[in-house]
């Protein structure tokens, strides 16, 4: 198994893995991202995300996509894991756990004092796994989201939903 | 009322407002951030956050601190609002609402397709206010967090909590 940073040449591979994740979650049409989006936002002068690829026998089988967040109280950045996925046929080799360990090491290198992600509340096996690792479930915090340009515009214009 | 981007010269003002927020939340000792932290991470070559200041009669009375996040499925960045605070004595002038509208406009300028933040689950008035604005509460998602360098190191080394 080999882990490495994704390069601009990997955008097609990354997009395939993102689509495989969406299919696995039974939302194959939810991915509107394109290779051009990945190239622009991941590999421009100010990267909006970073990605690690996991290879098994030289073939890409998983990825982790992350970016920096920042804590006002700590005055330090955190590493936010947006997506971690391993192809179903490549599971059982510890690829997911290796990606998680790798990202934790990266967080330390980058001076982060937090390592964060989100999990679905019905996914109790995952929550248990993460808690064993040392993660805490912040159940009192609810993510709020204004989705889409039109909805954001209504907020900007002081209009309601 | 005047809103403007914070500059390096505002780090002291920002830190005072961050501390006022922590005091308001009855956690005055939770802020370990320093002016040097704000300067390094907010105003270096790769800013880890952005901040807006709200002034009333030329005096700083509130702030919003935000950074970019990224959605793999949308292939676009989002604007994440980490903190928004208005000094108790300056409330009732619409400063908080103005900061929120201002950030929504900034999200549009930056090409973001999401505008996100978190709220405490017991804060039902705030949740109701945000929902009227057009935000959705993503109650099925639980934030997970590994806090502190030692806990992150244990994950990196494959050890448990």
Fold and architecture overview:
Two copies of one chain form a homodimer. The model of chain A has no long low-confidence stretch (mean pLDDT 96). In chain A, helix 1 (11-24) crosses helix 2 (35-42). The first copy, chain A, has five helices and seven strands; from the N terminus they run βααβββαβαββα. In chain A, strand 2 and strand 3 (59-71) form a beta hairpin. Chain A has one domain (2-117): Gcn5-related N-acetyltransferase (GNAT) (Aminopeptidase), CATH 3.40.630.30. Chain A is an alpha+beta fold. The first copy, chain A, has helices at residues 11-24, 35-42, 95-109, 124-133, 149-156; strands at residues 2-5, 50-56, 59-71, 76-86, 114-120, 136-137, 141-147. In chain A, strands 1-2-3-4-5 form a five-stranded mixed beta sheet, sandwiched between helices. Chains A and B meet through helix 1, helix 2, strand 3, strand 4 and helix 3 of A and helix 1, helix 2, strand 3, strand 4 and helix 3 of B. Strand 7 (141-147) of chain A pairs antiparallel with strand 5 of chain B.
């Amino acid at each position: 198994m080999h882990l490495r940073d994704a390069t601009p040449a990997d955008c097609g591979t990354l997009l395939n893995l993102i689509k495989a994740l969406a299919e696995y979650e039974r939302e194959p049409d939810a991915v509107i991202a394109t290779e051009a989006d990945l190239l622009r936002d991941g590999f421009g002068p100010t990267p909006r995300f970073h990605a690690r690829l996991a290879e098994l026998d030289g073939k890409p089988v998983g990825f982790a996509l992350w970016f920096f967040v920042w804590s006002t109280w700590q005055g330090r950045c955190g590493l936010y894991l947006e997506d971690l996925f391993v192809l179903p046929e490549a599971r059982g080799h510890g690829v997911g756990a290796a990606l998680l360990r790798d990202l934790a090491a990266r967080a330390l290198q980058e001076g982060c004092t937090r390592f964060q992600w989100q999990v679905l509340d019905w996914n109790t096996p995952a929550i248990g796994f993460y808690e064993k690792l040392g993660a805490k479930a912040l159940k009192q915090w609810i993510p709020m989201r204004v989705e889409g340009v039109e909805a954001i515009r209504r907020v900007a214009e002081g209009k309601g939903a």
